Amino acid sequence: MSSPPIDSELLRALRDAGPPPPISTDLRSSLDGMKPVRTRVPLRTLLLVLAAGCVYPVTALAIYPLRRDLSALPPAWLIGVALVWLAGFCIPLVLALLPRRHQVLPDGRRALRAAVLAALTLVLTGLLFTVDVPGVTILPKSRWAGFWPLWWHCVSFSLKATVPMLLVASIALRRMTVVNLSFLGAPIGAVGGALAGLTLHGLCPYGGAAHVGLAHGGGVVVGAVLGALWLPLLARADGRLRRARRGD
Amino acid sequence: MPVGRTTEDEACCARAAALMARYCEGERRAFDDLYALLAPRILGYLTGLVKERATAEDLLQLTFIKLHQHRDVYIRGANPVPWLYTIAHRTCLDELRRRKRSRVRMSLDGNLPHEPSADISGSAEPPQERAHEQAIAAGMAALADLPEMQRQAVLLTKIHGHSTAQAASILGTTVGAIKLRAHRGYVALRNKLTADPYPVTPPAGDLSHEQAAL
Question: In the prediction, which pLDDT does A14 show?
């Protein structure tokens, strides 16, 4: 026979630790001269991060020519895959930066789940559904020596979109006292990779399932890993700087 | 039964949101009211975490200083209670890390300084209240014995009435992990309390256990 449940009265008694102490002198002095503050508008943060992420892809679209097989590719495939990349970009971004209704902090776990799902979907879309135009699409050599320079070329393109996004996001999120910042860093990094992948969908002249899946989709994975490491590191450095300023 | 989310809790959250909005507008009185409303709960949570009333009181003050410094992060109309718990939890983690790093003062012979133990003998309280106090003390002791992760999960979900999603958000972990830790912690707490000489529920007016002990 199992034990009876713990009495709710006892649990309630454990919740209240008695009357709190009066407000301390430190707290009282920090309250002196209190002024009204402008509270946070998460949509503004989202637009700022989005703008930072768009700088490099928009510049690239303006500078570089579109892929030469663009007119020969099936329009339905082109639009369908673009929509998948767009979803992989929008959903984790919204979840990572906009809190649920009546909440102050965004739901990191939901955003992380969305980022993992987006990264998997985008890599698999590249590996399984890439369409090439024979004779027009440039196919990378299957040998390692020919594959990796092109892989790095497209992943570095992704990083150029991801790094400004992460920079702006880390400045915007550093004061939010989130316990696990990796949960927010990973989706924001993945979003940068997805935005770059969406741009590469119209720019990159190279085809082949392995290149699109592992280089374009790989940019999302690399961005997510970078974001997961970057944001907690920056928060720690910020904390150390503040402690040093306070003289702790 | 765990403490569930009651209408009283919902009213408290709504009141806290209204006070927080007025506080962000620069109204000092609203801060005092917010402190009076939420400090007992946060203090209870911190006491459960650090197992020491004095440290918990220090952390409570630090939590509210952080709330004041970061009040611009608040979103108008949002419920500030889970956010305040998150700040309290972060403050507690930071402080514990800081204490781990800080040096310990030792006497010349390499021992820790002697601290006189408190005299807790004798009580002027009536037996019924004393039984209740003892039950709470036994509860606190059983809670303190739980592994840290389980204690945090039990405190937030079973004692402070947060949902598993909110608790996961406060602790920065997954809902699955919270459910598992809260369940294991609750079962361990229940077993400790039923094995304790003091009953889980101090029955009103029933002093038979005390008479038996005498």
Answer: 75
- Report the distance separating Cα A86 and Cα A93, nearest Å: 11
Q: Which residue of A has its CA nearest to B162?
A: A15
Q: What is the mean pLDDT of chain B?
A: 79
Amino acid in position A8? S
Tell me what the mean pLDDT of segment A133-150 comes to: 79
- Please indicate, yes or no, if residue A4 is contained in any of the structural domains: no
Q: What is the spatial distance between Cα A14 and Cα B142, in angstroms, rounded to a whole number? A: 11
At residue B146, the 3 state secondary structure works out as coil
**Residue A35: inside a domain, yes or no?**
no
To 10 degrees, the CA torsion angle through B153, B154, B158, B162? -20
Range of the domain at A86: 52-242
B32 interface with A at CB cutoff 8 Å: yes
From A49's Cα to the closest Cα of chain B, the distance in A is 17
| CB within 8 Å: B86 and A178 | yes
- Whether residues A18 and B40 touch (CB distance < 8 A) is answered with yes
- Nearest CA-CA distance, residue A92 and chain B, Å: 17
Count of the separate structural domains present in chain A: 1
- Residues with Cβ within 8 Å of residue A179, at least 6 apart in sequence: B86, B89, B90, B93, B170, B171, B172
Whether A237 is covered by a domain: the verdict is: yes
Q: In this structure, is residue A9 part of a structural domain? A: no
Tell me whether B5 touches chain A (CB under 8 Å): no
Rounded to the nearest angstrom, the minimum Cα separation between A188 and chain B is 17
Q: Full-prediction pTM beyond 0.90?
A: no
What pLDDT digit, counting tens, does each position of A37-80 carry?
A: 999 999 999 999 999 999 999 999 999 999 989 999 999 999 99
The verdict on a CB contact (< 8 Å) between A39 and B74 is yes
> What type of residue is B4?
G
